[in-house]
Every structure is written in structure tokens, then in C-alpha cells.
Amino acid sequence: MIFHAFLIKYGEIGIKGKNRYLFEDALIRQMRYALKDVDGTFDIHKSQGRIYVECEGEYDYEETVASLKRVFGIVGICPVIHVEDQGFEQLKKDVVDYMDQMYPDKNTTFKVEARRGKKSYPKNSMEINCDLGEAILEAFPEIKVDVHKPEIKLNIEIREQIYIYSEIIPGPGGMPVGTNGKAMLLLSGGIDSPVAGYMISKRGVGLEATYFHAPPYTSERAKQKVIDLAKLVAKYSGPIKLHIVNFTDIQLYIYDKCPHDELTIIMRRYMMKIAEHFAKESGCLGLITGESIGQVASQTMQSLAATNDVCTLPVYRPVIGFDKQEIVEIAEKIDTYETSILPFEDCCTIFVAKHPVTKPNINVIRRSEENLAEKIDELFEAAVNTVETIVVK
Predict the structure, then answer these.
(1) How would you class 136 by CB atoms within 10 Å of its CB: exposed for 0-12, middle for 13-18, buried for 19 or more?
(2) Is the per-residue pLDDT at 297 higher than 80?
(3) Helix, strand, or coil here: 323?
(4) Which of 123, 271, 353, 387 is deepest in the core (most CB within 10 A)?
(5) Distance CA 322, CA 173 (A)
(6) What is the pTM assigned to this prediction?
């Protein structure tokens, strides 16, 4: 069956009260962005508390649905047919025709569920349910009614036009991107940080990202891998401004001046400082990391406290309580996993200590950082002033 319209269902937006229109408008903007490169002409509009996508002429159905399934805020995508109100007898014919085309195998069960948004319609919802159900049973004697667990739930919405649909394709849920400010993602080439960015973006937060590059210890392929990961996350979040920081000189200086069992923590602290620098410049309201408690030495409770110590912005860690398999499952769902496991090392992996401290004392770490006083400010300024910034779409 060929559809030329979709009814878009949203979840949390519906309880936003007087501000709901702001969230609806943000959702429509994200939908327009998601569909701008899809073959076809689309009219996205609100009508009587519903959002519709009208598809004019020929369009790519599969690509349209796939694009809408990446828009946060959508909980259901319903391919609909809409007909003019030409009387109830005509509606019965339209409904029977819909069932015939949609479900060639009539050995099934169904239920009609009508909503009468147009209160002047001569029948109420219960009467519509009963009379349309009767018409379907007369047309297809082998089909059966099941009001509790039907295989087909036929939805009829009576408005200025009448909308008929029975399929609800799940959307990603969440909130429209941009309705909850912006945050800075510390993006590496691993599995966890792209998932963290996806999860925060799902709550309506726009993303920027910072990646720490360490040439010649990390290759251009490692850098391209991170750009590719940012592109995959951007399918959900929208464009991401990616700051690529040359971190080599800072890492080598820390390696030369600080105890080797503290290398990871001290390097991590400077990464947080640099990421926060760009976050504040861009008006971000927090930092995002892919850390999970206890996964590695730098992610123990004591280590996380030591990295938080250098931040004035809040640090959000959406996968903090997940085990690795749970994170992998999300990475597979959003198509970042295969890119994340490509064998190109990032700077954290290259400079990891053989026996890193797992319970760092913040006061001890601060004293170790005093060894860096001679040049660290100069190196910090050089890193932020030579940053490469690109917009990833």
C-alpha cells in the first residue's frame, strides 16, 4: 500500500502544559533537518494537537522512515491514509479497502479504535467502533474480533479530515535536540563516549565535542575514526562542532615530570580543563564523558573524584552504572560499534601506565602537578590556540 502521509506521535512533550508548543516547534525543526536530504518533498505541520508529515509526489518511503526514526522526541511513526468526510457509508468503504490492501491474509484478529476529534460528527467513538467493525466482518468473514489482544489495531481519527492507520513504527523517544541547552562531549575512538553523547542528546541536549590527538603517536586514521564516530552520532544529534586538540606536548611533559602511576589521572585532568575551556567559550552547560564506574583504573570512584576536582562545570556520565555489554548493545543499535573497534589507537591508550593508581589521593595528585608549573600554562595555551575545529554533519 502506498502512503503519502505520516502521523507523528510524541511522548513527554504532551505533558509540557503551556510550553508544549516550544517543544513541538523544536521537534518539527529536527524533523525538517532529518528529511532535508531524503528524496521527496515534505510538508511538516501541526494540526489540532497532532504533527503530520505530508509527502508530495514520489518519495523514498524506507529512507523517510529511517530518517524519522533518528529524531529524538518521536515515539511513534504512523503511516496513514487520509480521506475527506463524505459520509459514514463512504468511510466504511474506505476502511474495508484499507484492510483489504494492508492485510491480504485475513486469518487474523482485529479491533477498531476510533477517536472523534471533530465533536460535530454524527456518531460517537463507540458507535464508530461497532459499525466499522461490523463492516469489516461482513466484508471478510474469516477475520475475527479480539478486543483484548488483537493482531491488528485499526485506528480511525475523525478530524477535519479522517485518518486511518494500523501500524505504529517505534521512534527513539526522548526530547527534541536543543530544548535542554548544549554540552561538551569528550569524544575518543572507543565504544563508550559515542554512546554517552547519544544518550545525553536523547534528552534534548545539543552536542559539541573535543577530541585529543597525539601525533605522531596516534595516526591520521585514528583522527578520521573519531570524525566518523562524530558523523554517526550527528545522525541523531544534528551537526556537531568538533574541536581536535593536539595533546602531544602536554602528554610528553606530564610523562617526563610526573610519577608514572599517576599519568592517566593527570592527563585526564588536563583533558577536562581543555574541554571545559572550549565548553565555556561556546556556552555549553556541562561536560559529557563515557566513563563507567570501575571499568578501568581511571574510572574508579576515587579517580572520577580526582578528574571532577578540576572542573567548574557539571560533568554528566550517562553510562556510569552500565556494564560493558549494555554499552555495546547501545553502540550496536546506533551503528557506532563497528567503527569504535577499528584498531587505531587513541592518545589515552598510547600513554597508559603499566601500573596506574586506582585510588588516587587528590592532594597527592595536586602536589605532583606542581612539577609541571614551569611550562604547563604555556603548553595549555598552545594547545587551545592551535585547535582544529570542524563541523561534522
Answers:
(1) buried
(2) no
(3) coil
(4) 271
(5) 20
(6) 0.90
